[in-house]
Design goal:
Elements (H helix, E strand, L loop, with lengths): L1 H30 L11 H6 L2 H34 L3 H9 L6 H12 L4 H8 L11 H25 L3 H9 L4 H12 L1 H16 L3 H5 L8 H10 L4 H21 L7 H6 L1
Helix pairs in contact: 1-13, 3-7, 3-10, 7-10, 8-9, 12-13
Length: about 270
């Protein structure tokens, strides 16, 4: 009877997964086998392995890597300091709060800040440095992307640090470990699960960015997400757009498998 009740509870979840996860993926895979005229073809997959799309794929992974790296370098110290401060819940809320604002509004806000007559250039003029072309550059694209994804990196790392047993740090210090050694041998290894979760939460959506590339980078940065948008909305080549999406889904699935959390015990860490 209990097993039957559990099965009934699983029905809404399974329906949700089938309708909103499995069905869209199957539909995308189906469209990838058709050309602009609606004829069955494998040419889309052959076209994807041409230098143009391979270069675009490499560019997407490179920018996603940079965004994830800078987000991690900022988020880990931030999350660590949060665990040591008073009113940590309030500070955490302030970090999360910008993620509640619409992405388009944030993009236009940065256009105003980084524009030729924006606040940043005005400050540069006042300091004597002079105006600079900040908008429509690689720097502005990476900067805005990191700002957008910071909360998604901070949260899992903060949760991992909060769950860390403080007695382990006391034991490390009693054994003569310096602050850096304690971080390297105790804190970071025990919070690697949060780091992996944060990296996945940033790297995977960063691969498919398209709005930021258009508004902030001015299409100077071309990613797989930009190509998908162009094929579906501009060229109307749904087959090629679906083919790129298929490879993007495969890449995301591989990343999730490779960076999947494997629980490590304290004994495993000490052995290292």
């Amino acid at each position: 009877m209990e097993n039957r009740s559990r099965a009934l509870y699983l029905i809404p979840y399974m329906l949700w997964m089938v309708v909103f996860v499995v069905a869209p993926i199957v539909l995308i895979a189906y469209y990838s086998f058709f050309d602009v005229e609606g004829s069955f073809t494998l040419g889309n997959y052959a076209k994807f392995f041409t230098p143009v799309y391979l270069k675009m794929t490499a560019s997407s992974f490179w920018y996603a890597f940079l965004i994830t790296l800078f987000a991690l370098l900022i988020a880990y110290p931030t999350a660590y300091l949060l665990t040591k401060t008073k009113h940590k819940e309030l500070w955490l809320l302030l970090i999360i709060l910008p993620s509640w604002i619409n992405l388009l509004l944030k993009a236009y806000a940065f256009i105003g800040l980084f524009g030729t007559y924006g606040l940043v250039n005005s400050l540069l003029e006042v300091t004597g440095i002079g105006g600079r072309q900040i908008l429509f550059t690689d720097f502005s694209f990476v900067f805005v992307s990191v700002y957008i994804f910071i909360p998604f990196m901070v949260l899992p790392i903060y949760n991992a640090l909060e769950k860390l047993n403080p007695t382990l740090l006391y034991a490390a210090k009693d054994l003569g470990a310096s602050s850096w050694t304690a971080f390297k041998r105790v804190i970071f290894p025990l919070t690697i699960g949060g780091v992996k979760a944060g990296c996945m939460a940033v790297f995977i959506p960063a691969l498919s960015l398209f709005m930021i590339t258009r508004l902030i980078a001015g299409n100077r940065v071309i990613t797989l997400g930009t190509a998908i948008e162009q094929h579906f909305l501009v060229t109307q080549d749904w087959g090629m757009g679906a083919t790129i999406a298929v490879f993007l889904i495969i890449a995301m699935a591989l990343i999730m498998v490779l960076t999947g959390n494997r629980k490590r015990g304290l004994i495993d860490i000490v052995k290292k």
